[in-house]
From TrEMBL:
Xref: InterPro entries: CenT-Element_Derived, DDE_SF_endonuclease_dom, HTH_CenpB_DNA-bd_dom
GO CC terms of this entry: nucleus
Protein name per UniProt: Homeodomain-like DNA binding domain-containing transcription factor
Top-level taxonomy: Eukaryota, Fungi, Fungi incertae sedis, Mucoromycota, Mucoromycotina
Pfam families, A to Z: DDE_1 (PF03184), HTH_Tnp_Tc5 (PF03221)
Amino acid sequence: KTKATIFAERIGVKDFNASQGWMEKFGKRHCIKMNRIHGEAGSTDIESLQIDKAAIKEKIEGYSARDIYNFDETALFYAAPPRTTISHQKFSGWKDNKKRLTVGLLCNADGTDKWSDVLMIGHARRPNCFNKNNKKQEASDHGFSMYHYNSNAWMTRSIFHVFLRHFDHAMKAQKRKVLLILDNFSGHIVDYTPTNVELLFLPPNTTSHLQPLDGGIIRAFKAYFKRKQYAKAYQYIGMIQNGNQDKIGPIDKIFEIDQLWAMKWIREAWESVSAKTIENCWNATIFHFIEDEDSEGSSKIIYWS
């Protein structure tokens, strides 16, 4: 779409819109398809699970949308090449890049409160990108106060303990009582009892159906991140086409970025996720699940104000 827009400007085509519909028609005309390099497994059928809907509904109805939060973490392979491509035939792709950050995201049900200080977990205490001028430079020196590290860059109980205490103290300072919805990951079960945060753990195997962050919010966040990564790669391809490959390196390196760059993009990508997107994902997941049914058998989704 980006390239088509540039071509349109070069040849003087006015009012051109590289829409999704234009993209689909262009693909059909030239026999170009979106080929997935890696597939994903299907999800669990929620109807087959025994879930106490009444208990979940009772807890949620005790709070306004502003005071209902969801937290979840996701792995972000920030230097990995894309898993799909447009091509005339199947494409083998490049070797996977395993550099990763675990990102913890927190938002409330009406989308008015997304924590901009995103929780991030990396492999190293002081990544090389921090050490160019000062070997003792910390992530906090770059404005990332919620950065943790371990050998796997995974969420652990100790890291979640720190996060939960921080969130609880923030709600206490605001004199608010809130509900925090979590999946049943064992790392979320910690030896700490919040004073201003009530915890609601979702039943096993229901995360993809009930958790708002898994219902499209994380996907939107990653799409904004990848947009930044692909824009950088597109610039590099332009430099290669203009004979500056010596400044870029091998073509399979165009998607690579350092960790500091990735952390800045993570924060910007999270800020780009709109309140409307967040609200829609809540209404399509947990709120939809506990919807009321009227006497005629039709359903009515509960929207919290």
